[in-house]
Structure formats: C-alpha cells, structure tokens
Amino acid sequence: MEEIQSLIEKVKSDLKEERPEGEIVQSLLPIMEEGSEMAGQVVEELGNISHPLVGRVLQHLLENPCDKKIRKMIKRSLYRMKSKGIAVEEVLPEKEGPVFRPLQAEPPRGFGGPFDFLGRRFLMLNVPHIRRGLTVMQGIVGDMEGLVDFSGGEMPRKRFKEFFEEVQRGGPFPLMEMEPSYVGFLFAEANRLTLDEGRTPLQEYLRLKKEVEGIKKEYEKSPAYSCIQEDEIEGNDRLLGKGGDLLKTDLFDAWRIKEEEIRPYADEVWEAEESKLILNQAQKEARFQEIYQRALSDLFPEEKRILYRRRMEEMAYYLFRSGKEEEARVSLAVAVDLKKVPNVIQPNPFLFQLVVKSIFGLLSEAYEKKKQEFSLIRKP
C-alpha cells in the first residue's frame, strides 16, 4: 500500500510541476505491464485525481498492451472522471510511424531515507536496461563524511520487488521515492566529499560510477523548493514557531548533539542546579537560559548552521514525499530561517530545542546512574 501511495504522490507532484504527460506515462508503464493487482489499484487511485491531464495519461496507458482486466479498470476510471465533470481530452492515435516501435528502457527510479543525528542517510538507485534486468545501487552517505558505504549489481526485475520489501522492513523508517537524477547527484556529491576529505574512494562506487553519472543532474538547491514555494513560508512565524516540536516526532526523536560537544554545557547546568548558593527558581532559570544561549552560539557557527540548513531542507523533501506536508513546511521554514544572521532574542527554535534536549538527555542519564549507585550503597 505504501508503494502505491508513493507512486500516486509522485504523479501528483509531476502534475504540480507540469511535467510532460509522456514522462508520467513512462513512470507508470512498468507497473501496468505487470498486470498485477497493484496495477489495478493504481488505476483506481488515478481516477480519483481531479486533473484533466490524468485522463490523457489513462488513455495513453490504454493504448499500451496490458491485461484485459486492467484495460477495463482504466475505462471505468475514465468514465468516473467524465461523470464528475472533468474534461477528458481525447488522445488521437498516431497516423504515421512504424507499426513495431523500438523497445525503450523503463525510467530509472530513486529512493531515499531520512537523516539520522549523525547526518547520514540511506539511498537507493535502480537503472533498468533493455532485455536485461536492473542495475541496483545502494549506499549510505554522510554530509560530513561523504560516501560511507556503497554496493550494487544487476538484479532481475522480479527479484527487485522482493529485495525492496526486505530493505523497507529492515530500516527504522521507510524509503520514499525521489527524483532519480537527484539521488544520482547525492551519490556523486558524497563521492566528491570523500575525495575532498583526502580519503580513498570506494572501489564499488568507481565500478558503477558511469551508471550514476548517466542518471544524475546538477542541482543548485534541494528539490524541497520545487515542492514548497519559499516565499510561502519565509517570514511565517507560525510555521517557524513549530520548529522545536519536530524534535518530538519519531523522525527526529534520536537527534542529539554529540556528547563530547554538549557535555561542558550539561555540566554547567548540573552545577547550577546542585549549587550550594541560595538561588530561587527564577534565578536558576535565568542561569540555564544563559548557558543554552552560549551553547547555541558556540556550537553553531556559520559553517555548522549551513550544514543543518541543508539537513532540514532534505528532511523537508523526505517529509513531503511521505505525505506529511505540514511537517515538511515547518522543516523548510527552519531551513530558511537558518540562512539569516542568528537572532539572540529570537533564536532558531529547532536549534534551541536541540541544545536543550541534548543537555537534558545527558543529565537524565547522569541522574539515573547516580540513583542506581545510591541504591547499591544502601543495600545491606
């Protein structure tokens, strides 16, 4: 069901971006040719999209060889669209051209997961070949390390579906379909970072580098900005104010600042709490706020803010592809705010809460450890 929803969301995204109908048809052909139950469900879902171009796409699918049952379902979806008053423009068959058309390779497909707190993510890219199977490539990329892991090879089409389901079950979060050219770009960018860091490139990547290079395009910014207009969220205090709430969601729950970086500030908070000086709660809170602000300033210089801006842009793209548009807009609002000079009075809510969460995560561990030690001492 997730795969079907992902495919439908991609069609909706293509329609929004006004992509040519031929491209949309090509992305659907592999499923149609299988003649499976999934193909029927996709056709049913397409009939629920109120867009004239969907009617043309369905008619193009009708022209291609497919199962009789699927053809019947396509016609039913077209009828349903017409009955709703949606103009379905007729597609005239080509009068010229060869009867036998040359075989065309299916379009490549790309998939990606979210970032973890280390700035790593899992990506997958498959490239179909005529009269052959697929070249399936997968790897882990890090925005500070480059290409962490990479592997790939040829795989039969039927085996890929089973393999993909295994990968989905094995990860904490599902992979979402993404622009294959962008996934290729991310792999190539990670390899460049590996070289820039003076490390030896992965041999498995070098073996399949031509496959990646043949798919990738250059991107000046994240595709998140194609899904969500920047001018709709820039200066939107309501969205930005929800930035800290992202850390309460499953996707960001494990995000922390590295222990060696945050520990000095956590120790200061602990000392302020345990201080023998008589401080009322308001004075303690003022002391805590001063420590949080200093941690924010020290730990997030411009270079680090750029790194987190890119992470939040990528998370916005992943969230959008997951169908979580509101959270995607909040994530992108955080990213846009990180382009600005930091405001001491109104710090970026996501980074501020990340500092607080990381400090109290350490303090909680220390408190539990101290409580256990005290319990052991008191045992007879």
Describe this entry's structure for a reader:
By secondary structure, the protein is α+β, with helices and mostly antiparallel strands. The protein has three domains: about 1-85; about 110-215, no CATH class; about 230-375, no CATH class. Helices cover about 60% and strands about 10% of the residues. It has 16 helices and five strands. It has a five-stranded antiparallel beta sheet. α4 (about 50-65) packs antiparallel against α5 (about 70-85). It starts with a helix and ends with a helix. The model is unreliable at about 90-100 and about 375-380 (pLDDT under 50).
The count of strands amounts to 5
Taking the alpha carbons of the first and last residues, their distance comes to 58 Å
Give me the number of helical elements.
Answer: 16
Following the backbone from N to C, one meets helices and strands in this order, namely HHHHHEEEEHEHHHHHHHHHH
What number of structural domains do the residues give?
Answer: 3
Summing up helix and strand content along with how strands pair, one would put the structural category as alpha+beta
Helix content: 55-70%
Strand sequence of the main sheet, in spatial order?
4-3-2-1-5
What kind of sheet is the major sheet? 5 strands, antiparallel
Rounded to an integer in angstroms, the radius of gyration calculated over CA atoms is 26 Å
Mean pLDDT: 85
pLDDT < 50 runs, ≥5 residues? 91-101, 374-380
Q: Write down the overall geometry.
A: elongated
Residue share in β-strands: 5-15%
